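Narrative of activities, Objective 1.

The group set out to show that a structural description can be obtained from nothing but a protein's sequence at a throughput compatible with the screening campaign. Below is one input-output pair from the validation batch, recorded exactly as produced.
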Amino acid sequence: MKAATVKQIKDELSERSPKELLEYCLRLSKFKKENKELLTYLLFEASDEESFIHSIKNEMDEQFENVNRKNFYYTKKGIRKILASVKKHNRYSQNKETEVDLLIYFCQSIKKFSPSIRRSSTMMNLYNRQIEMIKKKIEKLHEDLQYDYGQALEDL
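Output recorded for this entry:
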């Protein structure tokens, strides 16, 4: 089965009743965890972006505490998993400020992380890629925010 385009789906959904749309959303939420997480964000967390950011930062702190530090292979794997989680939440939000804020917090956390990532060129490359990504995202923000986030970026 070939998937329809977004435009085709949008046109078809505009012709459906609210009851049918509700059934579709509930059915979607049963198939993938990400669908359910996105619906949770849209319904409960999108209205309060600050508490969403705070909860993601707390989750990140918890994940950094639980990273396996005994073997550097597992440490790298754990850090990449945290980054994937951050990027997933950024896709849910689609707010550039949230994205920059979470990426800066990730970089601050990885910089404080023990054992130091400086021993691994792979981890330093991951860190540097995130810094470059933050720089590109900051350029698209309002001037005042560019300054504030630029200051945070200089600390990294």
